[in-house]
Specification:
single chain; mainly alpha; ABC transporter involved in vitamin B12 uptake, BtuC; 11 helices; about 0% strand; globular
């Protein structure tokens, strides 16, 4: 049974796309969580729900419509928070709740809507295909390139906003770019763990890494490593125990976070 799992194409696809999503979410996680924008993931996940609903009605691959709508929503959230004197969390709440409501209305008035709302909310990692892998691979290349090229500026945007050395205009553009890339990543994350759980892919890696009190670069590296390992272990366990993969991802991450916290607590106690 330990080796049998790799004899199925759908499981190989699940491992590949799961690890790719774990990588990209961990890469952007510190720049979002440490910038007090953790709710962005949850808000954009609910927004992508509208995209998937419209996509199911219009085309065979709803993820493309979801990507477009989520990117537009991320732009709208940033625009509202910067131009309308509304704080970021409130802007996220306005856009996400409106999008989710519109999605439910469309479902209620559309005859023949044959996709379970539960599948949109809880994800379907084991039904991913080669097309999803291509999309996620392209997204991974874009995310890695973006983080590497703008690493110093992204770091300053998180920790040195008051004395930022880049221009204010460039800082705003960087915020918009990060928000849009986050939106695209979250849409793919919804495909895996669903709209209800996708924020965990963004939040947990940084929370786990920060328990070790290392430098920012170390935090980023720890986030990536723990995210990939927990994703791999979660998929494996979900197959062996025949339980939902999406829920397993969240539970395993929570257990790892608890272990990291206990490690920090015990370490402090020994020092004292």
């Amino acid at each position: 049974m330990w080796i049998e799992i790799f004899s199925y194409n759908f499981m190989i696809y699940a491992f590949i796309i799961g690890i790719l999503v774990a990588l990209v979410t961990a890469l952007i996680s510190p720049f979002i969580v440490l910038n007090n924008q953790s709710m962005l993931a949850d808000g954009l996940a609910h927004t992508s729900f509208l995209g998937f609903v419209i996509g199911v009605i219009l085309i065979d691959q709803p993820i493309y419509i979801a990507l477009i709508i989520a990117a537009f929503a991320s732009f709208l959230i940033k625009l509202i928070s910067t131009k309308a004197s509304i704080n970021n969390d409130a802007a996220i709440g306005v856009v996400s709740s409106l999008s989710f409501a519109i999605g439910l209305i469309i479902i209620s008035v559309t005859k023949g809507f044959n996709v379970s709302i539960e599948s949109l909310m809880t994800g379907s990692l084991l039904t991913t295909n080669s097309g999803d892998i291509i999309i996620t691979s392209v997204l991974a290349v874009v995310t890695i390139s973006f983080v590497l090229y703008y690493y110093r500026n992204l770091y300053q945007n998180v920790f040195d906003k008051e004395n930022i050395v880049i221009s204010r205009k460039k800082s705003i553009i960087l915020d918009y770019a990060l928000s849009m890339i986050s939106a695209l990543i979250i849409v793919v994350g919804v495909k895996i763990v669903g709209a209800l759980l996708v924020s965990s892919l963004i939040i947990f890696p940084t929370l786990i890494a920060t328990q070790f009190k290392r430098s920012f670069k170390a935090t980023l590296v720890i986030s990536v490593i723990t995210s990939i390992l927990t994703m791999f272990i979660s998929i494996y366990i979900s197959y062996l125990l025949d339980i939902p993969a999406s829920s397993t991802v969240v539970v395993i991450n929570a257990l790892v976070l608890l272990g990291a916290y206990l490690y920090k607590f015990i370490g402090r106690s020994l020092i004292k």
